[in-house]
Specification:
Strands 4, 5, 6, 12, 13, 14 and 15 form a seven-stranded mixed beta sheet that branches. Strands 11-7-8-10-17 form a five-stranded parallel beta sheet, with helices on both faces. It has a three-stranded antiparallel beta sheet with strand order 2-1-3, with no helix packed on it. Strand 1 (4-8) and strand 2 form a beta hairpin. The chain has helices at 77-82, 111-118, 134-146, 183-194, 208-214, 216-225, 240-255, 275-281, 292-300, 320-327, 336-350, 356-370, 389-395, 409-412, 417-425; strands spanning 4-8, 14-15, 33-37, 71-74, 87-95, 100-101, 126-130, 150-155, 163-164, 172-177, 199-201, 231-235, 264-270, 330-334, 380-387, 399-400, 405-407. By secondary structure, the chain is α/β, with parallel strands linked by helices. The chain has 15 helices and 17 strands. It is globular, with a radius of gyration of 20 Å. Helix content is 34%, strand content 18%. The two termini are 39 Å apart. Helix 2 crosses helix 3 (134-146), helix 6 (216-225) packs across helix 7 and helix 7 crosses helix 10. It binds pyridoxal-5'-phosphate (PLP) and zinc ion (ZN). Residues 106, 108, 134, 235-242, 306-307, 355, 357, 385-386 line the site of pyridoxal-5'-phosphate.
Length: 428
């Protein structure tokens, strides 16, 4: 029996995985695929490295070197302040005292190993990843350790985000979209590169390995707590982590040892960039029509830049709207100020620095407690999607990845781009 198949959430078509499939072949409206595992029982394999202890629920046929995994623990001090009896933190980052060993300090490092291990070892093509920061750092580190070729495309303004405690291996090539470019320009450039022979796209939310990798957060929580949580809090930019959390809860329910699934998703955005929050509050399946100028102006005002995705998978079948509907979920708008207060309180009470995005999630939890949207005895999990970056930078000397090539935003959008990119890539 095959370990898993891929199922289209719109038409139910099933596919055997060829390691690269991102969508259904049938011509219908856009839809995600979902992994269906033949074995419904979750066995946590403590002898495997890092997140591969959850490999039963990962669409991979091999494991690669990695150290990081989510670490769920029960909060004592913060929970007391909030008056909650069962608050658990799913910590994704660097915190040695808790054995949290995600060296790139965010849950993006749960995507990279599973995406890369889904690709067969004898594959000779190069994966292309576009990122504004955390995803790029995670892929650059994991590819470097495993000697897997990578073309990473980022806006020049994110260059300081690509660091490691070890020098990068040259299998990792960094291409910059020059100043004036943003994350969308990097995506445009990356998609041009994937059209050349020998390169393939990572796929973002459409890649089941990315979602199932992020889903290990809720598998870890369920396993530690012994049941499916009642409430799940996370800050979202694309919402992929929220979709993955829900898919994970469905799998735990099918396992049968974790109770029934009534997990409610509480997803938060950074005010004023509240694209999905605005839509969901109106129960609107389409996102508001902000023009580029308006979007960029709002993005300029937020501290948690990782939450600034302008094209999140919200309306697609199986996307954020459908997931919120299925979980009877809620969305929040959290200000920079609320997030800063939350981060400060967390560091004081729990003892580790948080990523600004985790501050947004905690700010949402404060709102929910204040408005009595969660019960004092209910099981609440907070996905701290990033943390310990400050601590890591104090503990280690950092190496940065030198750029291999740089293209201006004019070049990216021009006819000549293809030629220039091709000549650059010939050297890889
Ligand atoms: C990417 C990221 C998020 C948002 O995750 P999505 O589920 O993709 O929206 C939140 N926090 C951190 C630290 C991130 O890097
Ligand atoms: Zn289909």
């Amino acid at each position: 029996m095959k370990k898993y198949t891929l199922e289209c959430l719109h038409c139910g078509a099933r596919y055997e995985d060829d390691s690269f499939r991102l969508k259904c072949d049938i011509d219908h409206k856009p839809s995600l695929l979902r992994t269906v595992y033949s074995n419904k029982k979750l066995t946590v394999r403590e002898n495997q490295i890092g997140m591969f202890k959850f490999m039963d629920f990962l669409p991979v046929s091999r494991v690669i070197q990695n150290k990081g995994a989510p670490v769920t623990y029960k909060s004592e001090r913060l929970s007391k302040i909030l008056g909650l009896k069962n608050l658990y933190i799913i910590f994704n980052g660097y915190w040695p005292e808790k054995k949290a060993m995600i060296y790139t300090a965010s849950f993006k490092e749960l995507e990279a190993p599973s995406v890369l291990a889904r690709v067969p070892e004898d594959n000779t093509n190069t994966i292309v990843v576009a990122s504004a920061g955390n995803t790029g750092r995670a892929f650059a580190n994991i590819c470097s350790i495993n000697n897997i070729p990578l073309v990473l495309v980022i806006p020049e303004t994110s260059i300081a985000e690509i660091w490691s405690s070890r020098p990068f291996n040259d299998c990792v090539k960094l291409i910059l979209a020059s100043a004036g470019s943003d994350y969308l320009d990097a995506i445009t450039l990356a998609s041009k590169i994937t059209e050349f022979e020998g390169f393939f796209p990572e796929g973002g939310e459409a890649n089941v390995a990315r979602r199932d990798g992020m889903a290990t957060t809720v598998l870890d929580a369920g396993h530690k707590i012994g049941q499916i949580p009642d409430h799940y809090f996370q800050a979202v930019g694309s919402g992929t982590g929220g979709i993955a959390a829900w898919e994970s809860a469905l799998r735990l329910a099918e396992d049968g040892s974790y109770g029934t699934n009534h997990m409610k998703l509480h997803l938060a955005q950074n005010y004023p960039f509240t694209l999905m929050t605005d839509a969901w509050k109106l129960r609107e399946k389409n996102l508001p029509n902000w023009d580029e100028h308006e979007s960029k102006e709002k993005i300029r005002q937020i501290n948690a830049i990782v939450l600034s995705n302008r094209r999140p998978p919200y309306s697609i079948t199986g996307g954020v709207f459908d997931t919120l509907s299925a979980s009877n979920g809620q969305m929040y708008s959290v200000t920079n100020r609320e997030a800063e207060e939350a981060m400060e309180l967390f560091e004081q009470q729990e003892g580790c620095d948080l990523h600004p995005a985790s501050g947004i999630a905690l700010g949402a939890l404060f709102q929910a407690v204040k408005n009595q949207q969660v019960g004092k005895d209910e099981i609440i999990v907070l996905n701290a999607t990033g943390g310990g970056e400050g601590r890591f930078k104090r503990d280690f000397h950092l190496h940065y990845l030198p750029p291999f090539a740089k293209l201006t935003d004019k070049e990216i959008n021009s006819q000549e781009a293809a030629k220039k990119i091709e000549s650059v890539l010939k050297n890889i």
